Amino acid sequence: MQTISSLLAGVALAAFATPAAFAQNPPESAPATPVATPAEVQADPAPEAPADIVVLGFGQSRQVQSVSAVDLARLTPGSSPLKATQKLPGVNFQASDPFGAYEWAVRISLRGFNQNQLGFTLDGVPLGDMSYGNVNGLHISRAIISENVARTEVAQGAGALGTASTSNLGGTIQFFSDKPRDTANVTGGGTYGSDNTYRGFARIDSGDLGGGLKGYLSYGYLTTDKWKGDGVQRQHQANGKIVKDLGAFGSLSAFLNFSDRREQDYQDLSYDIIRRRGLRNDNIAGNYPLALQIGKTYQNQAALASYTKANNGSSVGFVAPWAGVGTTFPSGFGTVDDAYFDAGGVRRDYLGGVTLNANLTPELTMVTTGYYHDNKGQGSWITPYSPTAAGTLNQDGSVITAPSALGFRTTEYSIKRGGALSNIAYETGANTVEVGGWLETNTFTQARRFYGMTDSATPNRDVLEFQKNPYATQWDGKYGTDTMQYHVEDTLKLAGDRLIVNAGWKGAYVVNNATMLPDTTSPLAVGRISAKDWFQPQAGILFKLTPAAEIFADYTENMRAFVSSATTGPFAATQAGFNDVRGRLKPERSKTAEGGVRLHSGPFQASAVGYYVDFSNRLLAFANGVGILGNAPTLNNAGSVRTYGAEVSANYRIFRPLSLFASYSYTNAEYQDTVTDASGSVQVRKGDTVVDTPKHMIKGEIVLEQSGFTGRIGADYMSKRYFTYLNDQSVPGRVLVDASIGYRFEGDGPLHGVAIEGSVTNLTDKKYIATIGSNGFTASGDNQTLLAGAPRQFFVSLKKGF
């Protein structure tokens, strides 16, 4: 905390002197004069449609759509802000829990680009690619309490030039935090529901303390039992934000967010497991003796196979390592991977930032932000693949005296990253010129360690705790990433602002380094690799046909930098594999063109867009074995992908209390090259559909609000998705329905502002596969990489002041 406080204080002082050299991302059409933090500029709902379900990006030369805090509040409290975006066209959102917050299972993709090929920011601060085990950021469910999100903006195809991201081949998703209230206030709420779900939230706003100084503190808590199997998922969060009005000069704001998240995992499934054990198959955390028995049986099987191979098929004289257990799994279990004992993830994060928004002259404005992020995390599996030997240490430091068939395997994370981003805009007449940049230094450490388990009636370790006293370290790597990005953009307004033209470019240089700490026998790669492109152009045009209709078009090029990690990217390969590809490995690139029309007439607004994407230098990582083995993947450039499609959305407020929203998207994403491995086997075939890319998605929502009463029902259809590159395995399409109903007390009295709400997720109790690719994708065949979706669940919430 001392480190964070010192850094943020330094940034606050440095911000006044920082030259215009770093990046931020105001809208293309934003004037140069308003004074507010980036969050305040973007968080206020669009004035022309403050109560609409979504805002369809009018005035933008790109496909941009957003949802507000009002929309997020209609979901079950504690739901991820990502879940509120799933209704938008082109958004493929998957989650196996009702909140969309269980990170191992959460996936979001746009127009065929998966999560680690998108860009994510919070108030302009980069969140990295938000993948599980994030190496350069953190998930939005940890970065901020969902009730404090004021606005979420989705650019399906081309993010703003100044977006602080080097992974946004596809679109960007930007989150903007709420601003402190002008008057003192206390708000809060509580939720209870299925599977012993308890959710609480409280926020205290100071109001204006004098001189334009105001702020808030808030706290959120969530605990819920898993909907299948044994285990819990819980989270503590705290957010603080303060804003100081500096008069005509501008404003200064700062935030500090904390999260402690601990969750027990659901078991990854394959079709074989589902056929034999059903969608409700899960880890067996409530039965430690059974897990030991399965582990011992597997190790007896492995020992017998090794013995017979060495003795020409004979088992005469074989002595099992675990006497009295045999080589037959307990009834109902077919493989050692059917069910593990337990798995989990623990994450602790601090994220802070300071922003100066300054009017340097009437024509010249500057927005500068400094930020720091500190993370500690562990992901764990209790595994029969690494048994415990006698003599290893327990969590408390005592000696384990007898061997065990199980071991506790972790992947351990630590992130310490800091950076600065700034944007300067100069407006003269119809012309606005922007120059900006972003610098970040990230030190990421990652280790694979093993801890001892006992042969006892109950487990001696808890996956919800940070582990101590390892008996082995497989690898312990230190990964550095230095990022430099800049952008230049010019926006020109002509014909009385009916015609807006913007054009510019960005450049990026990212250097990745990997070293291994001593005393490990790691097979993983070390070394240096970089990605550089100083000219990535973007251009757009917007023409207002009438006050109610506009057309737009844009073109953009992007590069995705390499990732520094032991579990993804070029350093996840063996040293020999890295040495083989380092000289010829190229960063992924995309070229996107889109165009469309928007209409807004009274209570009706709609948009339609068509797009084409050329994705080249695609990096393909092939999973080797089940995820629990942790085998190094195979990474290569694997040709290109061509994607084209269309998106249509409409919002119609039939009369003031009743509004309808609907969207449809069509995506055709196909591999353009046939790829073979070293043996000549086809791994990817030209013309096949990109994995995890549904061709059709249809979403709809009805909202009724009248005299304090609120009712909402939404439906989400997604067509089939392939989870093999050769398209021989897929999961079928599904329709999911959510609903909520509530009442808010208006008028005077003690109940003023009190609201009660009931909500239900998966209303039809659909049995379906939610997430695919949890353990990566293979060329063909079944794979333990599927996660089941949650059944119907009910929640009741009581709120005050939202």
From TrEMBL:
Q: What protein name applies here?
A: TonB-dependent receptor
* Location of the TonB-dependent receptor-like beta-barrel domain: 305-763
**Of which family is this protein a member?**
Belongs to the TonB-dependent receptor family.
Q: List UniProt keywords, sorted A-Z.
A: Cell outer membrane, Ion transport, Iron, Iron transport, Membrane, Receptor, Signal, TonB box, Transmembrane, Transmembrane beta strand, Transport
Taxonomic lineage is: Bacteria, Pseudomonadati, Pseudomonadota, Alphaproteobacteria, Sphingomonadales
State the Gene3D superfamilies in the record: TonB-dependent receptor, beta-barrel domain, TonB-dependent receptor, plug domain
The record describes its membrane topology as: Multi-pass membrane protein
Q: Which domain of life is it from?
A: Bacteria
Question: Hey, what's the signal peptide range on this chain?
Answer: 1-23
Give the main localization category: membrane
Ranges for domain TonB-dependent receptor plug? 62-171
- Localization: Cell outer membrane
In terms of PROSITE patterns, this protein maps to: TONB_DEPENDENT_REC_3
Q: Name one Pfam family in it.
A: Plug
SUPFAM superfamilies associated with the record: Porins (SSF56935)
